[in-house]
Amino acid sequence: MPSSVHSDPSTPLDTTQEAPRQWIARRLVLYQAAERHPELQDVLLAWCKRDVRFWFRHFCWTFDPRKEQPHLPFVPYAFQERALVALVRAIETGEDMLIEKSRDMGLSWLVLLAFQYFWLFREGANFHLGSRKQEAVDRKGDLSTLMEKLRYNLSWLPHWMRPAGFQDSVHDNVLRLLNPTNGNTITGESSNENFGRGGRYKAVLFDEFPFWPTQDAAYASAGQSTPSRIVVGTPYGRHNRFAELRFSGQIKVLRMHWRDHPERDESWYATQAQRLSEDELARELDINYHLSLKNRVFSNFNEANKGDFQDFQPTRLIRSWDFGYHCPACLFLAFDSEDRLLVLREVVGAQVLLTDFAQQVKAVTEAHYAGVPVEDICDPAGAQRSDKNVRTSIEILNSMGIFPFFDRSPIKDGLELMRVQLSRLMGNTPALRVDYGCEKLIEAFEGGYRYSSAESETPLQEHPYEDVMDCLRYAVMQKCSLPVSVKSRRSPQYRPGNRYTGY
Q: pTM for the whole thing?
């Protein structure tokens, strides 16, 4: 076998920017030798069937118009080979896999060519490809589409490696490639509620899944058609099927971050950060789910606003309540010695009655702040009656020995005052800080609490983010001063009320 062949996967590869020409030269030598010696073709095919990495190193190609030489040998970097091995294992063992990635990591090519490897060398290996619209799945001549990438690599393979009898006019159709030698197919389809339902597949690809309009239905539909759903994407918030899968603990997760790429460093990242908006940077490079959405209400919330306050013992505790129907929330707050407002803990209910929720809040109070005087603040809507209960929410709390007070004030004033407190320094830290354990509140700050559009002035009403933010807004409006430059009306006139000061 020619010395240019790298058959040992443990052999270090030269994958620097100078490598492409060297790899092209090596492949040329190898292909010419195989043409002269048919017995070498059988040896190379046997090596390919034995190890997918060998096939990638010597026979896979990719296209990048940004390069001086756009037709490039796909010689995987170490992080790509690790991903390739994990992907092939998931396909072989019939496991679902989610791959979260920074952009431009070569992942689309990697997954598609892994599918093509099975299509060429394994019996009974049908695959299905999906993206959010058909134009992204297949359009002949457009290398940005999934199917055209497969055609491209197939056209670069030596003739003796292509399926015997393969004819473009017969076996290469829109949304379908057929291997006439073994009967394997690779088909494509756009996102829909019945995605993948009609076939039986070795694996199915959900490309750029966070942007599919029918995520839940499509993912469930393909579940009966394949044992291996390969879900790929960059983050787009926490409220979609992709994010739910990622954090479910019930699916194998592979992460491909830009720092894994040997050609990227902090200088490269700094250049990208100047070109991209905050949400683009979070989505395209940082794999940050919370910051990946546009229009978040509090763009000035950052790491300086977080801290560890689990052991902080206040001299006076503030509890702020919001009364979402069966979805109540309560924040535990206190001022430190420098008059900074600290959010110490959160309790967030889901499908729970207010009486049960209040007992939970009292238990947390007793466990962590026994003997500390308590002041309760609440949602003004808690004084309203409804047909859901003969008693108001405040009356329910009163019956349990909790006497909150409230004040009505414009939402915009509260949001602006919160922005001021997030950025205003008191000493060396901001005037408003949140404990790391307040996960829902932090998620709300980092994108869960957002406007519906750049023009909107009203945040979206999404549980639990709206609930915890409302809790914080009530407390800030009651307890923090409103700078003159922010006032859109006269200062709030606080309504006096009973204050519960301990058990």
A: 0.75
How far apart are alpha carbons 118 and 248 in whole angstroms? 29
Cα(453)–Cα(469) distance, integer angstroms = 19
Closest to 467 (Cα-Cα) out of 345, 396, 379, 388:
379
Residue 256 is classified by DSSP as E
pLDDT of residue 386: 66
Q: Which residues contact 439 (CB under 8 A, 6 or more apart)?
A: 346
Residue written as tokens 């606080």? 494
Q: What is the mean pLDDT of residues 371-384?
A: 92
Residue 146 token pair:
């999934």
Average pLDDT for 21-36: 91
In the chain, count of helices (H) and strands (E)?
17, 18
- pLDDT (average), residues 403-410: 90
Identify the three-state secondary structure at position 91. helix
Choose between 327 and 60: higher pLDDT: 60
Q: Which own/partner pairs from 270-275 qualify as long-range (CB within 8 Å, at least 24 positions apart)?
A: none
Query: Which of 170-174, 275-279, 424-428 ranks highest by mean pLDDT?
Result: 170-174
Average pLDDT, the chain: 89
Please report how the helices 411-423 and 465-479 are oriented relative to each other, as an axis angle in degrees rounded to 10: 80
| Ramachandran category for residue 193: left, alpha or beta (phi over 0 → left; psi -120 to 50 → alpha) | alpha
Residue partners of 435: CB distance under 8 A and separation at least 6: 306, 307, 308, 309, 310, 342, 343, 344, 345
Tally Cβ neighbours within 10 Å of residue 503.
Answer: 11
Report, in angstroms and rounded to the nearest whole number, the Rg of the chain calculated over CA atoms: 29
Q: How many of the other CB atoms lie within 10 Å of CB of 468?
A: 30
49-69: average pLDDT:
93
| CB within 8 Å of 274: residues ≥ 6 apart | none
Encode 213-228: b = buried (16+ Cβ within 10 Å), e = exposed. Answer: ebbebbbebbeebbbb
Q: Give the chain's length.
A: 503
How does pLDDT run across 434-471, given as a tens digit for each residue? 999 999 999 999 888 989 887 888 898 888 999 999 99
DSSP, residue by residue, 318-376: EEEEE--TT--EEEEEEE-TT--EEEEEEEE-SS--HHHHHHHHHHHHHHHHTT--EEE
d(CA 316, CA 432): 17
Helices (H), 185-224: 215-222
> Is pLDDT at 496 greater than 70 in this prediction?
no
For residue 491, the model assigns a pLDDT of 36
> What are the Cα distances from residue 381, in Å, to 225, 295, 332, 386, 406?
49, 27, 20, 10, 9
b/e code 145-179 from CB counts within 10 Å (16+ = b): bbbbbbbbbbebbeeebebeebeeeeebeebebbb
